[in-house]
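PROTOCOL LOG
Step 1. Enter all chains and additional molecules of the complex.
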Amino acid sequence: MTQEAMLNMLELTVGAMLVYNFVLARFLGICPFLGVSRKLDTALGMSAAVIVVMTLSSAITAVIYNLALKKTFLIDGKEINLGFLQVLIYIAVIAALVQMVEVLLQKFSPPLYKALGIFLPLITTNCAVLGAVMLNSVNDRGILESTIFSFFSALGFGLALVLFSSLRERLELATVPRPFQGMAIALITAGILAMAFVGFSGLC
Amino acid sequence: MLLTIILSILALSGLGIILGLAIGFVSKFFGVATDPKVDLVLELLPGVNCGGCSRPGCADFARALVAGEASPEQCPVSSQEAVTQIAQLLGMTVGDLEKKVAVVLCGGDIHQTKVKTLYNGVNDCISAMQIAGGPKSCAYGCLGMSSCARACPFGAIEMINGLAVVHNELCVGCGVCVDTCPRDLIKLVPAEAKVHIYCSSPEKAAVKMKVCNVPCIACRKCVKSGEEGQFEIKGFRVEVNYDNFPGEDIVEKSGCPKNCLLTTAQHLEIERNADKEENAV
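Step 2. Run joint prediction.
Step 3. Record the structure below.
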């Protein structure tokens, strides 16, 4: 592997997970980050669901992007590029994919369905999932690269979610001044956590 | 331009048709049929997910009911009619069930029981108990950190003067609070039993009287004035026998010298007025 390829790989893995963390550096997927982080159990379930959906949808949309949307077709002597339709196409594909995955999980792995089931529909059109897919297209990544990037991005999302939910479980028992109770202290904690992740910048 | 528009429409409708067919295909060949009874039962259940049936939620309980692993009366919250309806739906028969409510068997609010330390830690009964046995002098009384009130899914427990009091009209008897009390003060009793002895301390009368104004000193006045078997003597305290409980008139007949034999209404009244007197002073 050349040095450039190594650096590229580092950016796709460590960079996606820590340096450009989806929640804490790119500020995507804040809704599930605040919504399901009250308990560690649900945070773990949500993280697993995000990892599955993000990786799968990135792989499928990367195929569509590389085979169709990226190319310019010559029809009737005119050049036509359907790249401007990508948001619409991606949303439709991701939504359909999640539906199918849900049905298949229920059939072939009921325990996994029980663990992920309620979270899957929640992230159908989550901005973190769409964000990962769009970032892949914008940066013109190949199919394998896109899948690796999305998998590690989702891992980073899961890491942030698990860290944050552990913090919030501790906060439940702390004596918080009345004006800061509830969501206020949660948002302040999220801000401090994001500042901690700034420490990774410059890593790659 | 026109060509682009037509192509976009074609591409998107083509995608829609393909995805629609794919979803249809998957759910047709791999879909798992769920029992329609589960949804019907779920509609009849209260849907508050209190966990009183020892299952994670009402949906799980409904599934267990349809699978025949549970019986409808295990839901402590459902009314008799709802239970009967569910039983009819599933083709079962149920016996009569007794409605139960929770009661906190302690009368030691902050005016009655001496406070020995100023507790300033985590607002939780279990935490408070681990630090020198809590702020109150009585080692068997209500700690007043409202762990049970927070646990109650129905908001039926009110903290008055540092004492947990159950509102019978709100309590459904799910029993969630019973496990949260580190001092085991909360009991599920028949809703018809209105008279309780609000003391759970097993210590000797002399010890109890030093720390509390309303302890049960086991003088047995209530035992003598009631019918046989209505009370049970347990060491240095007396307990109402909830299998054969006395009526409300027993409070007047016995003349409890320490005022710990009370009806639920009287108990609530006393706690409310104690608060008012405090404010007046």
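Step 4. Note key features.
Chain A is about 70% helix and 5% strand.
The CA atoms of residues 96 and 180 of chain A lie 41 Å apart.
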